[in-house]
Amino acid sequence: MGVIGNLIAGFSQALALDNLLFALIGVALGSLVGVLPGIGPLGAMSLLLCTTFGMTPLHALIFFAGIYYGSMYGGSTTSILLNVPGESTSVVTCIDGYQMCQKGRAGAALFIAAAGSFVAGTLSVLGLMLFAPLLADFALKFGPPEYFSLTSVGLAVLTYISSGSKAKALLMVLVGMMISMIGMDPVTGNQRFTLGFLPLSQGIDFVPVAMGLFGISEVLNIVTSSSSQVRIRRVALRELLPSRTEISRSVGPVVRGSFLGFFIGLVPGPAAVISSFSSYALEKRLSKRSSEFGHGAVEGVAGPEAANNAAAGSAFLPLMALGIPFAPPMALILAAMIIGGILPGPTFIQENPDLFWTFIASMYIGNVMLVLLNLPLVGLFVSVLRTPAQILLPVVAILCLIGVYAVNSSSVDVWVLVFSGVLGYVLRARGYDLAPLVLAIVLGPKVETYFRQSLSISGGDYSIFVTRPISLTIALLPLAIALGWWLFHGAFKFSRGEEHGRET
Amino acid sequence: MANDRVTVGSLLILDAAFAGYASRYDLGSVKNPGMGFFPLLIGLGLGLTAGLCLWQKRGRMTWQEVPAAQQEAQVRPRSLGRVYGIMGTLIAFAALNSLVGFWVCTGAAMAALLRICGLRSSKNALAGAVLTAAAGYFLFEFLLGQKFPEGFFK
Q: pLDDT value at position B142?
């Protein structure tokens, strides 16, 4: 069956009532999570991981994916209306979105953000649908050296692109890998670093660490930050329509943002955040009205919103085709799939075509649901922000405690959650990015396993990592991209300089 | 700055312990690494990076810094009291939930957190606690069939 046939079959299943319901609950929760500052998709998915025990793998996948890409939509709403980014991906939308709101164009900004998100989300699902099977077929040629190159290069790139100090990001990656070494040696099966404590023999689970670092530490962080009751501007339905000029000015940024976001989404780490900032910078450079940026330029809303949604969609590509999560929320989706007895990887699409194509179809449907939900119900979502922090924060903390125990029925996990929360609070306050730590916990054991398996295959010959063409290419790819970007950047600056010279 | 040195210094101490522990395991050889080889490598990498950070912080700052995040850390004393209160509640929850019972602990923790976070009415805090424990029990034990420590109620 071809792509179209598979997709039709996928739609026929995705339109079943149960699948529609899980998609709807997922995207609605995602929008809610996106609106609320402090509770990101990672925290929400961690909390809800225990609920996937009773779900089929398909339901769990549709549900969690809905939360993830739904949160990208919700984040822009508060950025535009309140200058409060619900998600880190929407920080850049505050700049021009809020200025548009101040000028009485809040409705138009919301519409453009939603339409841009929809177009980008749909295009990225299209990309995922076309490229995932190809990449999965190609990945069948991968052996341990290729996977070692992929995972270690992933961690290296993650260190480089993390926010703040690179040294601190490297420290976080190494601490994450250190934590991942606790438990069973992945090759011999012997225990290490357990200090004779039996519950540690299975290692430290990624879920309580993620919930502590992103959930509890956020609660502590919000408690220390000054909070004031927000004043919410009401937006009538008729105000949502943008003018013709606004639409025509948004088309280019949305298309460019979609492509940029899709490719940046394939990079490990906070790709959605990077893509939104990159798109903003790109639009500002390309725009003939660059002076309007920062004062309510519609391109500054359309581009970044499209980019972060496209990145959210393409982040599924490495997970589905290679079985490697390159973003913390993807690690949770992987966990949900494993709970359901499904292991993503190169053979996943071949072995589970129904699951994959239904999931793809549900993402198309989810994107439509998000537009239908977010535009008319914008007031409802924003009104959630009226919930006082003194009630919201204890609820989040308690949900973390219950959720973390429910996943493994382990009191040790509760301790890990509390310890990670305190650690996360301290590290954040010192300017450390926590995403590299969490991803290193997930990728650390894989890096070690592939490293030792590769040496076992080659009889201890380290040249195996550079003599195999695919492994070498993966290792050199970031360098090639960096070089290409540097050349492009140089050429761009040169041509702008010439133009500037001619003007003066 | 001083706080950052403390953080990096703490990581360095932790790393020394980790690397020391790793060296007790079978290291194998460079060609055939044992179970201690990779952790030792990570430990050395962490030690080197942390050491470099500490060394660089003695002089001028060459690594990018995030002053905003450090400013965030300078919080009001009252907020800091709340942070300690929340941390204490969470630690008490982790220590006592299997002894006292998960849902009793959940209720108590909720009441404490509500008060710490600024809810003035004790009655409301108590109502919130009972509601949370009841809702949690209904959702997780009754509907989802999860088992939680019963403590005194065993």
A: 81
- The CA distance from A368 to the nearest CA of chain B, in Å, is 30
Residue B28 phi/psi, 5-degree rounding, is: 65, -145
**CA closest to B22 among chain A residues:** A193
> HSE on the CB side for B16, CA within 13 Å?
6
Residues in chain B: 154
Instruction: Say what the pLDDT of residue A74 is.
Output: 80
Cα B98 from chain centroid (whole Å): 19
This prediction's pTM: 0.81
The reported pLDDT for the residue numbered A393 is 86
Best CA proximity match to A64, nearest among A332, A322, A345, A321: A332
Chain B residues whose CB is inside 8 A of the A395 CB are 132
Q: Which residue in B7, B33, B80 is closest to A455 by CB distance?
A: B33
Closest CA relative to residue A401, chosen from A418, A386, A385: A418
Q: Which residue of A has its CA nearest to B50?
A: A171
Of A178, A224, A402, the CB nearest to B140: A402
For A84, A179, A346, A487, the CA distances from A409, given in Å and listed in that order, are 37, 21, 32, 54
Work out the number of other CB atoms within 10 angstroms of the CB of residue B27: 17
Q: Which residues on adjacent β-strands are paired with residue B33? A: B28
What ipTM does the predicted assembly reach? 0.86
pLDDT value of position A17: 94
Phi and psi torsions of A310, nearest 5°? -65, -40
Q: Find the DSSP H helices in chain B.
A: 2-22, 37-58, 67-73, 77-100, 102-116, 122-136
Give the residue-averaged pLDDT of A168-183: 91
Minimal-distance CA residue of chain A relative to B25: A192
Q: With CB atoms and an 8 Å threshold, state whether B117 touches A409.
A: no
- In chain A, how long is the greatest CA-to-CA distance? 74
Chain A hits for B65, CB-CB cut-off 8 Å, are: 164-165, 431
Residues B33-49, mean pLDDT to the nearest whole number: 91
User: Mean pLDDT lowest for which of A112-121, A208-217, B8-17, B136-145?
Assistant: B136-145
Asked whether residue A416 carries a pLDDT value surpassing 90, the answer given is: yes
Question: Could B69 and A164 be called an inter-chain contact, meaning their C-beta atoms sit closer than 8 Å?
Answer: yes
Q: Do A431 and B102 touch (CB under 8 A)?
A: no
CB contact under 8 A, A51 and B64: no
Cβ <8 Å between B94 and A428: no
- Picking from A167, A175, A411, the nearest residue to B98 by CB comes out as A411
* CA torsion through residues A327, A321, A466, A148, sign: positive
Q: pLDDT band at B73, cuts 50/70/90?
A: very low
DSSP-derived 3-state class of residue B29? coil
Chosen from A51, A161, A217, A224 to mutate, greatest number of chain B CBs within 10 A:
A224
**Residue A100: which of A342, A376, A249, A297 has the closest Cα?**
A297
- C-alpha distance from residue A342 to each of A125, A132, A215 (Å): 21, 17, 27
- CA atoms of A194 and A186, how far apart (whole Å): 14
Inspect the interface and report whether the beta carbons of B35 and A221 lie closer than 8 Å. no
